[in-house]
Design brief:
The protein is 82% helix and 0% strand. It is mainly α.
Length: 111
């Protein structure tokens, strides 16, 4: 479903975690990290255990240069993934955190 179709559903009053996830993913794929983060934040408000949404929220925040926000999202996502036994999401977000933590070191070394 296109983001336009999802936006129409939202405008008609439909609002839930799955709709917000779709909107977040669509906007992230289109390069609009700020709007993606907004929808993904609403998604995890609806369903704090939605580990895939935490993962995308972290990516959206990182794309918007909010590394602290990305770190927080992935930490919460790891906790959500662990609580429901979602090992794959847990592994992915752990790798994202490691890369995030190494990024400043790489930048510092290049200077």
């Amino acid at each position: 479903m296109s983001t336009e179709t999802l936006e129409k559903l939202l405008a008609k009053g439909t609002d839930n975690a799955l709709l917000r996830f779709g909107l977040g993913k669509g906007h992230l794929d289109a390069g609009n990290a700020a709007l993606a983060a907004e929808h993904l934040r609403r998604c995890v408000e609806f369903d704090p255990a939605y580990s895939a949404a935490w993962k995308l929220l972290g990516k959206a925040l990182q794309a918007g240069a909010d590394t602290d926000g990305a770190r927080q999202a992935w930490q919460q996502g790891i906790a959500a993934a662990q609580a429901k036994g979602d090992k794959q999401a847990e592994k992915e977000m752990t790798v994202f955190l490691r890369k995030l933590d190494k990024a400043p070191l790489l930048t510092a070394r290049r200077s």
